[in-house]
Sequence to fold (276 residues):
Amino acid sequence: MSATTVSPSITDRDKQEIVKQWNNDPCQAVAAKGLEVGSKAFYERIDQHRYEESQTWMKSVMEYDKFAGQRLLEVGFGMGTDLFQFASHGAIVSGIDLTPRHYEIASQRFKLYGIPADLRLGDAEEMPYEDESFDAVYTFGVIHHSPNTEKIVDEIYRILKPGGRAIITVYHKWSAFYLIQTLFANYFVSGAFLRESLGKVVSRIEHRENSDAQPLVKVYSRRSMGRMLRQFSSVKFEIRHLRAGEFSYFRRLIPLSLIPRLETRLGWFLVAKCVK
Fold:
């Protein structure tokens, strides 16, 4: 796949880097490397990697089957992987994403399987939807890349109906992946702190092969995320996704049997389940 240029209509540098990153290396596409993008084999491999190999906890935590008949919006739908799960279980789905390549690949998926979806190319900081127009909003690993994450949260709240649910997932600050593998090993022990900024090092956690993009990456604690979600009537947190390799040099000190118990404290994804 050839490199795609950044849309000239996007003037914010952080947003340009987002588009550059995922236009050239669509989110999770590396899992289906070698397969024809847009084919059934491609999408099936993406699903297999996500739900059976990499993030086996997602189907139970995200409850894709609990929104049948409801209007659900995904903010940052990527290649349509999770949104397709909601739609397959009967949700009436919409989605917004900043990246043209994501829009193309996700649109092809829904067309291929004959499932309707209202997908739009746009900026989640200014969503083109009426107040109180969705029963549910879902976003996974997206809003922490935005220069104004708080504005997206405000938009999510605005478009949700009273009593509507939001599932918002961001990167977890107090995770083994961030504290040990990224900060300790990749930034300090490697000596990277002498050569480049922390932001540049952290940006490389996002897989890239076909560009030199440096997407903004922010991390959140329960407390900082809670402050951002304070307008919701109810917020419950879950922490998930922990692998032994994230302990880096300390890997041999951590028995494998402890990983499941540590996951809810040191996992990489902070999931907030909110009610308006």
The domain at 13-275 is CATH 3.40.50.150 (Rossmann fold). Residues 1-8 have pLDDT under 50 and may be disordered.
